[in-house]
Structures are given as C-alpha cells and as structure tokens.
Amino acid sequence: MIFNTSKKYILNSFSKILVEVTLVFFALSLITNLLQEITFFKDSNVSGFYPIFFAFLNAPSIIMDLLPFIFLISTQIFFIKLSEKNELFIFKYTGLTNIKILGTIVFFSFFLGIILIFGFYSFSSKLKSHYLEIKNNFTVDKKYLAVITSNGFWIKDEINETVSLTNAEKINNNLLINVSIVQFDNNFNLLRSIDSKEVDINTKEWIVKNPVISKNNSTEKVESLILKSNFDLEKINNLFSNLTSMSLLKINELKKDYFLLGYSTVDIRVYEHKIYSLPIYLAIMTLLSGIIMLNSKYKKSKILNIILGILLSVVIYYGNYFSSLLGSNGKIPIILSIWLPLIVLMIISTIGLVRLNEK
C-alpha cells in the first residue's frame, strides 16, 4: 500500500514537471517561430494575427522533435527536487530504492511515448499540414504544385501565362519516364499536348527527348524540345521531404505510391523508424538522465547539471542526425541508422545502471 502511494506520488511529480518543461519549450518555440513568421510577412499587407497564428500551428511539430530532450531535462529537474526535499532518503526507508524510482519513470516514459505517437503526433501533423497549406497562399509559389499518387507523378506549373499539367509514370534519377504534358492558356483553352518517353528535369529548363507534339489537329515529332519550368529535380525532392505534415496512415500510403512510381522510399522509411522508435528513445533518455543525476553530486551543482543536460542533448541530437543522414545516403542500412544511436545510448545507460546498483 505504501509502495503504491509512493509510486503514485512519483508519477504525479514527474508528470507535473514534464508538463512544466514542455510548456517552457513550447513558449520558446513560439517565440522563435514568431520571429520567423514576422520576417516572412514583413513585405505582406497582413494583420499581426497571421504571424501569431502560424507560430501556434507550427509549434507542436517542433515540440514533437524536442520530446527526447524534454524528457531528459525533466528527469534532471525531477531528481533535483527529490533531493531538495530529502525525499530520496524517505523513499529508501519505505523500501523504494533509487533503482525502483528510476524504473518507475522509465516505464512511464515508454508507455507515454506510445500514447504520444498515436495521439500527439497525429495532432501535430494535422496542424503542420494546415500550416503548410494555408501558408502556401501567401507565397509566390502558389501557382504551381506537385503530387505523387498511384497514377504517377503530377505537376501543375504556370509560367509565361501558360499552364502546364504534367503526368509521368515514374522518376528515374533525373529523368521523368513516359511523360504527357498538356498546356493551356490562362483561360484554360488548349494550346498543345506533348508526349515523350523521357524528360530531363535536372535544371529548370527541361529537355524533352523525341517529343510528339499535337497542336491544332496536327502532329509532329521533333528531336528535342526545351520547356521552362518552376521545377527542377532538387526542388521536387525538397517538396516531398516534409513528412512531419503527414499522419502515419498517409505516410504509409505515400510510401506505396513512391514504390509504384519508382521514387526512392529511403527518406520515408528513415522517418517511419524515427517515429516508431520514439517510446524507446524517451525511455532511454529518461534512464540516461536519471543515472547521471543519481551518480553525480547534483545537490551542490544544480545549474551545472542542467547545463550538462543541455550539452548532452545537443551531442545526442547531432549524433542521431549524422546517423540518419548516413542511412538516407545509403552508407549504412536504414534500420541501423536509426537504432545504432539508441543502442549506443542503451549500452552507456546499462554501464551506468550497473555502477548505480553497486552503490
């Protein structure tokens, strides 16, 4: 009974600190976003509502990325507060050791991570989707778009008062394969249609190879044709890189469409593993932070430990980024690129846990 009461107290205290730290990070992300949105709208005649509105829409997706570090710092503060109130010694007298306390919040972090994947992530991705969709109306790029569906790759492009609708069966390196381009004027009167086996999109001046051009009920075939576009290969790749605006279901559907199109699914699979590894990531960060605090003289150096936590967060962030980059570039297997940093952190935590148990 005493153990259950103590466990409830630990979880309530840890949850309260998590909420407080999350709110601090949310406020910081809002301020950062607000500055960026003000810069974005500086040349637009809009009210002050829009920068604030867009900052709120974008903030949850940033919090999603920062969750591991929120858990790390929250764990530090949790043990500092327990120490300040001498509650660690009280728990020892009730049979609740440091290992049991740490185990309680580690398992809590893991199960909370599962809830966050299917709850908070869906919420943040929905807001991110609205953020990108609404903000597109304020950009000069809103006259063109690109999508990938089960029917291939589609581009709507408007340049020099000509609207082009392009459909390709697949992408192979810098080439669109089996391409059909239909061009209209601003009133959507048909100008011409172009069919080609291959179109080189390496630059914004597309090279249409051996096109068949249909115009005014006549057809001609030429050796090549240059078409100006707002798109090149790099821009197309960047358009499909923002996976944070998609739910898990949409990501899975997009992966199937990419596969049918012959488009690389590496980035999607890397992102999927990052999302699904979140509960383990949060648990490891909680464990690692707890071990550091229990093995250090945090009663005499609270600020130093918080700074250490921030520095550790930066190191872990760039370690994960570098590893996922190697996976995206094909240097190491995709699964290994996501799980290797977690395995390293787990090994370090296990060594620390052994030392803590010896004490």
Question: How would you explain this protein's 3D organization?
Answer:
The chain has 359 residues and is of the alpha+beta class. 61% of the residues lie in helices and 18% in strands. Strands 1, 2, 3, 4, 5, 6, 7, 8 and 9 form a 9-stranded antiparallel beta sheet that branches. Strand 4 (175-184) and strand 5 form a beta hairpin. Helix 1 (2-40) packs antiparallel against helix 2. 28% of the residues are buried.
> For the residues shown, what is the average pLDDT?
81
Which percent bin holds the helix content? 55-70%
Distance between the termini: 27 Å
Order of SSEs:
HHHHHEEEEEEEEEHHHHHH
Which structural class best describes the helix and strand composition?
alpha+beta
Cα shape: elongated
Tally of helical segments: 11
Portion in strands? 15-25%
Low-confidence stretches: none
Number of strands: 9
Largest sheet: number of strands, sense, barrel closure: 9 strands, antiparallel
Backbone CA Rg: 26 Å
Give a topology summary.
Elements: H1 2-40, H2 49-84, H3 87-93, H4 98-118, H5 120-135, E1 145-149, E2 152-159, E3 162-172, E4 175-184, E5 190-200, E6 205-209, E7 212-215, E8 218-221, E9 224-228, H6 233-239, H7 248-261, H8 266-276, H9 278-294, H10 302-328, H11 334-358
Antiparallel strand pairs: 1-2, 2-3, 3-4, 4-5, 5-6, 5-7, 6-9, 7-8
Helix pairs in contact: 1-2, 1-4, 2-5, 2-9, 2-10, 4-9, 8-11, 9-11, 10-11
Summarize the structure.
By secondary structure, this protein is an alpha+beta fold.
Summarize this structure as a short list of keywords or feature phrases.
359 residues; alpha+beta; 11 helices
